[in-house]
Each structure stands twice: as structure tokens, then as C-alpha cells.
Input
Amino acid sequence: MRRFLLVGLTGSIATGKSTVSQMFAHLGARVIDADLLAREVVVPGQPAYAKIVEEFGPSVLQEDGHLDRKVLGAVVFADPAKRKRLEEITHPAIRVRQQRILSVLEEEDHEGIVIWDVALLFESGGVSRMDRVVVVYTDPETELIRLMTRDGRPEAECRARIASQMPVADKAKRADYVIDNSGPRAETERQVRTVYAALLADLKSRLSA
Output
């Protein structure tokens, strides 16, 4: 029997998922970053890279031949069909890498909490493979302000980016645990400690069953 609890950590753009992920890592969780894997599968020489260039053309490349993520992001955020096509190319490759990591952890008899840090957990259907789901929530106004501050983009563009994902409130309704990151960092840290303790209890219960 697998001796770790696989926990999907998700939210929406600018809700603070990465911050919460780091807090879990500090407490001892093993974190697998989907965005990092996404970068790895699209480097030159990878099959997904070739498919993206074939699909979207050389305009999404930097001078050194690597993908220009900002240009590609602008293209797919403006067109849901193109965004879906990009996901069809990258998500299978990301899942393969994720499974390799999980297989190694199983072989090593790793025990503890393993966090799958991913933005599109619900949208990609990955939620069905999780033991537990944690959603990082912020109120809509805070989310918008943080995104505008972080990216330096106009309000209308930021609203469009937020609208391109499933509303974080809907994700929260489907979560096992919700961390409200609307307030001070200390309050978020308190919630993370509480959820981490609950996850460890969930794992202990499973292992003793």
C-alpha cells in the first residue's frame, strides 16, 4: 500500500498557491510543482516542444529557440480553442513525468504528505487521481488587485485572465480543505499548519486501517 497521501493543491491565478505550497514544504511536505514539469516538457528536443512549434508557428519562439512563454500565453489566453489545444499537447507529457516521480516515491516507500501543486487541477481532470484536495482561496477583489500588481497588466486583461479559469469559489466548494489567503500572511500560515496536521491525521488513519 502507498504510504503517502497525494494532495492536490490548487487555486486560481494570483490567489497565492505558490506561497502556500512553500509553507507546506517548510512543514515537511514533498512538493511536486506542475509548472516546473510544464517547463521541462517544452524545452527544445522534447516531443511536446515540436508539436507546439508545429501548431503555433515560429512566432512563439525566442531568438535562442526556446519557447517565449509570455507570447504563447498571450496567444492562448485570447483564444479558448488554442488554449485547449496547448493543454492537449502538454498535459499528457506532464502526467508522464508526474507518474515517474510518484513511482520512485512508492519504490522508496516514502511516507508523508506529497503535494501536487497545479493550477488547473479541476480543469484538467487531475482531481480524480488525488487522495485529498486543498484549494487556496482569495476574495475576487484581492485576487484582481494582486494580479494587476504582480503582472503590471491593465484591469481588463487581468479580469479576462481570471475569467479564463474555473471560479475559485467553485473550486473551494469541491475541496476537502480550503485555505483563505485573503488576509495577513500569519493567518495563512496558521491555516496551513492546521490543514497539514489534518492531512497527517488522514494519512495515519489510512495506514492504520
